[in-house]
Amino acid sequence: MDFDRMTGVRVRLLRCNDQYTTLEPGTEGTVIFIDDFNTVFVRWDNGSLLGLIYEAGDRFEVVSPELQSVIQVDDDRR
């Protein structure tokens, strides 16, 4: 996962392992910051704020086609 230049990038949720979230796959949002543990915090379009933890199995894809080649996100949708 390349976390460089992620702030402000539009993403789409593929999978989230948080059992308490109401977010569904396909929900879109904007990355607002990434902490020192590489948690990707997203302001989702439904108003929710949730940090995604890649190492825990959370997955998302970059929505903007022009950024997909710059920001590499592993395509692991298992």
Cα-based radius of gyration, to the nearest Å: 11 Å
Q: Going across the major beta sheet, what is the strand order?
A: 4-3-2-1-5
Tell me the number of strands. 5
The number of distinct helices, counting runs of at least 4 residues, comes to: 1
Integer average pLDDT: 84
Question: Could you say which structural class the secondary elements and strand pairing correspond to?
Answer: mainly beta
Q: Summarize the amount of helix as a percent range.
A: under 10%
Strand content: 25-35%
Uncertain segments of ≥5 residues (pLDDT<50)?
A: none
Following the backbone from N to C, one meets helices and strands in this order, namely: EEEEEH
Taking the sheet with the most strands, its summary is: 5 strands, antiparallel
What is the approximate shape? globular
Alpha-carbon distance between the two ends:
16 Å
What's the arrangement of secondary structure elements?
Layout: E1 10-15, E2 28-34, E3 40-44, E4 49-52, E5 59-62, H1 65-68
Antiparallel strand pairs: 1-2, 1-5, 2-3, 3-4
Description:
It is a single chain. The chain has 78 residues and is mainly beta. It is built from 1 helix and 5 strands, in the order E-E-E-E-E-H. The protein has one helix spanning 65-68, and strands at 10-15, 28-34, 40-44, 49-52, 59-62. It has a 5-stranded antiparallel sheet with strand order 4-3-2-1-5. Strand 2 (28-34) and strand 3 form a beta hairpin. It is globular. 15% of the residues are buried. The mean pLDDT is 84.
